[in-house]
Amino acid sequence: MEDTTHLLRLKLVPVQGVPMLKLTADNWPEIEATQARPDDLIIATYPKAGTTWVSEIVDMIYNSGDAEKCKRDAIHVRLAFIEATFPGLPTGVQQLNAMKPPRLGKTHLPAQLLPQSFWDKKSKIIYVARNAKDSAVSYFHFYKMAKVHPEPGTWPEYLEKFMAGDVAFGSWYDHVKGWWQKTRDHPILYVFYEDMKEDPRREVLKLLRFLEREVSDEVLEKILHYTSFQEMKSNPMANYRTIPDELMDQNVSPFMRKGITGDWKNMFTVAQNEKFDEDYVRKMSGSTLQFRTEL
Ligand code: A3P
């Protein structure tokens, strides 16, 4: 692989006012022009909401619970990451274009930046949302290990940036609200990480209904087994271990880190929590969205 160290830890660049990874911003014309298909399925999330988890579940559903088939390639190849852009690798758009339908894709773009074609073609979308506090903590650890991001700074510094929306893909608050709005006029299934933790079977059944697919009880059991945190953590095709340390240093923090709800309590001080809650009420006022920060 070519030396790409000069492309790491770059400053974010705004795309229509939303801070974006520079390489993605540079490739915006290609991303914006992505051509969707009605039978595409897109998993949309704010980073760290459980994208990989739902990706693995959906791939298992598409492959009738055949775990070996789902190990045919790494998760970031089985689903095209639409806005992904990195030198020496096919872009997410190229990856999507090379896929045979029904195509699977993922995106972290806020709703207003999703390429128009996905709205026009009415492609189905699963949006996964996770509470703001656990998202902030998970994203901080991810920033430290995934060097396509700018340096996160200390936790207190990072938390301020998160609250200000000065992180890759912008404001968590705008993201979850923007996609929630879109559920009114587009086939979007909006699911919560906390609900999946609470009752994965119920949530997988929900996904199956949305996808208009049925599986036997035996296949359902397999899907639940192979997409558990422990299984995915040790599965090299799901745990991002195929990505070189230069890009994602799992010695700093593993991709499959803790996989729980409520880890924020180990990071937030009492003062940080009070400030966060106060700011949260302001930013989320007027929205009917409700999140759980503990189970
Ligand atoms: P933590 O950092 O809190 O552990 P994404 O895939 O959107 O980047 O999200 C990554 C987060 O989802 C990480 O959270 C990761 O551990 C968690 N995760 C991944 N697979 C999971 C699973 N099968 N069950 C529960 N959590 C999972």
Automatic annotation (TrEMBL):
SUPFAM superfamilies in the cross-refs: P-loop containing nucleoside triphosphate hydrolases
Source organism, top-level taxon: Eukaryota
Molecular function via GO: sulfotransferase activity
Sequence ranges assigned to domain Sulfotransferase in this UniProt record: 38-287
InterPro entries given in the database record: P-loop_NTPase (IPR027417), Sulfotransferase_dom (IPR000863)
Subcellular location: Cytoplasm
One Pfam family per UniProt: Sulfotransfer_1
EC number: 2.8.2.-
Keywords, alphabetical: Cytoplasm, Transferase
Cellular component GO terms held in the UniProt record: cytoplasm
Family label: Belongs to the sulfotransferase 1 family.
Name of the protein in question: Sulfotransferase
Organism, as annotated: Pleurodeles waltl
